Amino acid sequence: MLSNIKKTTLIAATICGLLLPSMASAAVRPQLTRIVAYAEDKETPVEIINDSDEAYLVQSWLEDLNGNETNIPLVLTPPVMKLAGKTEGKLRVVVLPAEIPQDRESVYWLSIQEIPPKAKEEVQNKLVLAIRSRLKVFVRPKGLDAKAAADAVKSVTWNVEREGGKVWLKATNPTPYYISFGKLELKAGGGKPVVLEDKFNMPAPMGSQRYQVPKSLVGKSATLTYSAVNDYGGGGEELTKGVKL
């Protein structure tokens, strides 16, 4: 039953999003843009709000970064709830400490799907939009904290790689935290800053991530400016590095 609801509302959201991208806005939305869950906490609240005047059903679920919903070491409750108009609600995330990596952060997607009320019979030709909000849940084992997470971006090292006629900037992350770039751009000479594609791809803990350099900048000396998003969704200190592309 719930699976069918999810499929139906997702299809509706996709179709409506294609037809009316500028008009669609969520009635039900999370209060924050990201969630940080600590394994040692009993639970982590996820506050949501219904901006509409009408009551909505809300379905929520967790996935890993590859879209898998099985073997998630988190418990999310309630999976379905009713939220009256102009009211706030709360989801709860419980971490299963023994089942998460103990030496680094892990991250999952939380999807919050609104299920609109049925249109009244006297209303004809009414288009009902079902919008899904999606945010990341960062899970931290015991020993990892917010201060070190905020400083993690300062430990990132950058290298220029060339492969198949393309040039890449490789970010190596030696820390146990995911790095979410708020700003990632190159500027050469007096030109305008160029935002690197795929800047939302995160260097994993103790891993790396590559970002392709635009052809217009290849062969030039440029300044890389970057910053990380903090636990509250805000931008952190901007850092710079000179690179020869």
Notable features of this structure?
245 residues; mainly beta; Immunoglobulin-like; 2 domains; 5-stranded mixed sheet; 16 strands; 42% strand; globular
Shape: globular
Assign the CATH class of the largest domain.
Mainly Beta
| Count of individual beta strands | 16
Count of folded domains: 2
How would you sum up this structure, described in words?
10% of the residues lie in helices and 42% in strands. The protein is mainly beta and 245 residues long. The strands form 4 sheets. Strands 2-9-8-4-6 form a 5-stranded mixed sheet, covered by helices on one side. A 4-stranded antiparallel sheet has the order 1-3-7-5, with no helix packed on it. The termini are far apart. A hairpin with a 2-residue loop joins strand 10 and strand 11. It folds into 2 domains: 2-143, Immunoglobulin-like (Sandwich), CATH 2.60.40; 147-244, Immunoglobulins (Immunoglobulin-like).
Helix and strand layout, with pairings?
Elements (H helix, E strand, L loop, with lengths): L1 H18 L8 E3 L3 E5 L5 E7 L5 E8 L10 E4 L2 E4 L4 E8 L10 E10 L16 E9 L5 H6 L5 E7 L2 E8 L7 E7 L6 E2 L11 E6 L8 E8 L10 E6 L1
Parallel strand pairs: 2-9
Antiparallel strand pairs: 1-3, 3-7, 4-6, 4-8, 5-7, 8-9, 10-11, 11-14, 12-13, 12-15, 15-16
